[in-house]
């Protein structure tokens, strides 16, 4: 199936806003279901069709509603009831694209309006011709609302059109059913309601649906209807309506979802009957508001909350680049539960079952910078989630014999703790399931969270956040690292042994450079803030001391931090050892795997134990260290390590390409930076039809933004100072974007041999930034600087 990227579909207003496919192929439904998925942070729905196909994956996920199916499994986001499904009978033939003849097919996601559209011209086996248009959106203005509309026009003769539609609670997560069957009910022969409760977490879900009908522009009463219920199902069977040739038959399905985990419900004490009544009143209200008004409010919400807040304009010889960043921004908003600080972003967003909806370091290192610079209130909420999971982090540390906060590698609900599965894919040599060690020994996530906390504060200057959350997060994580260190008496130094670094093709290693440097940074930063509070805010320090026993902890930091082993560049070649053994491992020809079509191809020839003994990396490791702590390393050291490690990096993780792109920009290799950027954008949008079956690659979308703003746009926060050093790729004529810095919004425009910085707003605060080692100040005038 061909994938095409339409830039000017229908109207110049939507140039570079449309992602589309122009053919239907039932073998490759997974990719478009994922990349065309809709969401508003509260919920997300894969872009399956209204009509059902065997090869489809029909997913609806509600953020934060984790459930555990069995004791030997981990919690996951349950696949909620299918409220999308509709079955149409056209002149006694069921509409299905696997039957009949498809004369025209166009399915597209309008990023600007956050609306999914399908336009089809279909001929039945009897020779009857129909035009069908399917429209769908999940409202950003009202988080509980889903609306889908179907317009059917007979083109060859008058037609009889019948419909079956309802709510199907028979859904599973790859065969696992997470719900107990509860009540089903019809109200007023119009409103369908189905109630389900998760089996272990006991979360109530209430779904409602209703339909309205039109012939042309004229509303009509619902056709005669037969009400049906089945196990975990409730539906309406609408009897046929005769529609004249060239007349439009329009059915609009309004649906909503509420759960007992929702905040701000309009009753003080939770009761299921109250939730049911509240949701029923809501479905009645949105039916009265109607499709057009709901869509207008939804489009305005996207304009006000996203496109007007964080506009990014790219003038490129390849217009796809503009589309790619809008695609990334769309999905980052659609998948982020900005409404609730008890929730975070899943590695696949809300677009598929991949990684079970769990949160990784992806949020802090790859996604959070976008929100910190563009929508700081959302960034704060995501960090507050980590604070809210401290109990689980303390529990994990204690279970491992440590103190402080050791954050889970995979995180779900607040009190779930570590939720990384223990077993994974098959080992091609032994035939057994491969053990997943990340949940046990991939520990750098703790300092990643600390770094993101510090980065957020430095960029936003949000002192209230630091007082209530940030200082404690930084010190609690530093407390863990001080206890995690292992004394090596022979070398008179502390090691960190038996870990996995960012490069997950190296397990059970000692002294991973990234892990050691970040642990050292974490402790040093906590010590700096301890001293600052001691000198200037003793009452706050006293409160933190009571929680963290800082009187005992600080001396521990002071006695250990300078004795942490930090691998240094080798004098002969400036290489920094990724870990104690990497540079001594076998070197093989990796050309086959560097040129692979699908990631992970190396595991068709080797198992993980063998890969562990080869100089090959899954993803950026040392490079991430150079990105986060770039001031610690000279340009010569960075170039030497780039030249050594990049050829050995397969980029089998979607996190890797963007980091390498940014660093290539730093090293003034514009061609390499742009090529890596393009590859990063093609992880989901590219022609490979199997990359996104299990969901979009959430972190890579944040990485695309970082390529543009932190890489080509040159924006960095270094030791609390803003630096702007743009370097556009040859294909780009101009780049314009906004960032937030210390509560002010800056417009940065890069064009030709100069760039300008303009402060947006009426505040009198002056903003200082660094460019080529010179400090500039921008006030209320546009500041233009030659490159």
Entry keywords:
single chain, 787 residues, alpha+beta, Beta-galactosidase, Chain A, domain 5, Maltose phosphorylase, domain 3, Glycosyltransferase, 3 domains, 11-stranded antiparallel sheet, 5-stranded antiparallel sheet, 20 helices, globular
Short description:
With 787 residues, the chain is of the alpha+beta class. The chain contains 20 helices and 32 strands.
From the coordinates shown, what is the CATH architecture of the largest domain? Distorted Sandwich
Summarize the biggest pleated sheet: 11 strands, antiparallel
Low-confidence blocks of residues: none
What is the CATH fold-level name of the largest domain? Beta-galactosidase, Chain A, domain 5
Count structural domains.
3
Q: Using DSSP, what is the number of strands?
A: 32
Q: Could you tell me how far the N terminus lies from the C terminus, measured between alpha carbons in angstroms?
A: 45 Å
Radius of gyration: 27 Å
Structural class: alpha+beta
Summarize model confidence as the mean pLDDT. 96
CATH superfamily heading of the largest domain: Glycoside hydrolase, family 65, N-terminal domain
């Amino acid at each position: 199936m061909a994938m095409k990227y339409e830039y000017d579909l229908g109207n110049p207003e939507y140039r570079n806003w449309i992602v589309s496919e122009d053919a239907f192929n039932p073998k490759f439904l997974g990719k478009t279901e994922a990349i065309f998925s809709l969401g508003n942070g509260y919920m997300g729905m894969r872009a399956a069709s209204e009509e059902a196909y065997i090869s489809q994956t029909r997913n609806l996920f509600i953020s934060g509603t984790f459930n555990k199916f069995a004791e030997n499994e981990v919690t996951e986001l349950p696949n909620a009831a299918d409220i999308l499904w509709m079955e149409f009978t056209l002149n006694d033939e069921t509409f299905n694209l696997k039957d009949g003849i498809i004369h025209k097919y166009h399915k597209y996601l309008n990023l600007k309006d956050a609306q999914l559209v399908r336009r089809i011209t279909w001929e039945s086996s009897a020779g009857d011709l129909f035009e069908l248009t399917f429209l769908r959106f999940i409202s950003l203005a009202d988080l509980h609302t889903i609306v889908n509309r179907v317009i059917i026009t007979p083109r060859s003769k008058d037609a009889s059109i019948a419909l079956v539609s309802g709510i199907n609670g028979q859904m599973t997560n790859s065969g696992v059913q997470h719900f107990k069957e509860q009540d089903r009910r019809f109200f007023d022969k119009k409103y369908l309601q189905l109630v389900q409760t998760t089996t272990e977490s006991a979360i109530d879900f209430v779904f409602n649906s209703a339909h309205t009908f039109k012939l042309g522009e004229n509303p009509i009463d619902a056709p005669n209807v037969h009400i049906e219920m089945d196990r975990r199902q409730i539906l309406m069977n609408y009897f046929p309506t005769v529609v004249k040739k060239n007349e439009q038959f329009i059915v609009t399905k309004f649906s909503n979802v509420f759960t007992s985990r929702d905040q701000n419900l309009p009753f003080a004490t939770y009761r299921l009957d109250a939730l049911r009544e509240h949701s029923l009143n809501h479905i009645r209200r949105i039916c009265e508001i109607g499709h057009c008004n709901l869509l207008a409010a939804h489009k305005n919400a996207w304009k006000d909350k996203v496109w007007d807040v964080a506009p990014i304009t790219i003038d490129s010889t390849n217009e796809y680049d503009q589309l790619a960043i809008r695609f990334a921004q769309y999905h980052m908003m659609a998948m982020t539960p900005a409404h609730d600080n008890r929730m975070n972003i899943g590695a696949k967003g809300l677009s598929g079952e991949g990684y079970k909806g769990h949160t990784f370091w992806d949020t802090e290192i790859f996604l959070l910078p976008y929100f910190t610079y563009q929508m700081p209130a959302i960034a704060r909420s995501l960090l507050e989630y980590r604070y809210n999971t401290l109990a689980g982090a303390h529990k994990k540390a204690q279970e491992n014999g440590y103190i402080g906060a050791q954050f889970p590698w995979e995180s779900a609900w607040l009190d779930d703790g570590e939720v990384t599965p223990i077993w994974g894919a098959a080992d091609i040599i032994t035939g057994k399931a491969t053990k997943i060690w990340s949940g046990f020994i991939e520990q750098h996530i703790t300092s990643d969270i600390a770094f993101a906390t510090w980065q957020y504060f430095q960029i936003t200057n949000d002192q209230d956040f630091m007082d209530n959350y940030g200082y404690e997060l930084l010190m609690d994580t530093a407390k863990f690292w001080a206890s995690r260190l292992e004394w090596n008496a022979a070398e008179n130094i502390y090691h960190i042994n038996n870990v996995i670094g960012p490069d997950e093709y190296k397990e059970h290693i000692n002294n991973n450079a990234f892990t050691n440097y970040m642990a050292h940074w974490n402790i040093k930063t906590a010590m700096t803030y301890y001293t600052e509070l001691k000198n200037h805010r003793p009452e706050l320090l006293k409160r933190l001391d009571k929680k963290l026993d800082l009187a005992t902890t600080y001396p521990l930091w002071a006695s250990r931090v300078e004795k942490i082993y930090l691998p240094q560049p080798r004098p002969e070649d400036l290489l920094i050892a990724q870990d104690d053994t990497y540079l001594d491992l076998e070197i093989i020809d990796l050309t086959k795997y560097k040129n692979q079509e699908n990631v992970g191809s190396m595991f068709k020839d080797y198992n993980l134990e063998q890969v562990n003994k080869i100089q090959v990396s899954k993803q950026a490791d040392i490079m991430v260290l150079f990105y986060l702590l770039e001031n610690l390393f000279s340009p010569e050291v960075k170039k030497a390590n780039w030249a050594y490690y990049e050829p050995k990096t397969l980029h089998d993780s979607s996190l890797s390409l963007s980091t390498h792109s940014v660093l290539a920009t730093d090293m003034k290799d514009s061609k390499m930076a742009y090529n890596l950027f393009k590859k990063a954008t093609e992880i989901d949008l590219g022609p490979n039809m199997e990359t996104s079956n299990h969901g979009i690659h959430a972190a890579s979308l944040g990485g695309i933004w970082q390529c543009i703003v932190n890489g080509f746009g040159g924006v960095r926060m270094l030791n609390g100072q803003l630096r702007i050093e743009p370097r556009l790729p040859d294909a780009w004529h101009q780049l314009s974007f906004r960032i937030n810095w210390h509560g002010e919004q800056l417009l940065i425009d890069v064009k030709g041999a100069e760039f300008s910085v303009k402060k947006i707003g009426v505040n009198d605060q002056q903003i200082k930034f660094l460019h080529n080692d010179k400090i500039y100040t921008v006030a209320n005038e546009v500041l233009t600087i030659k490159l």
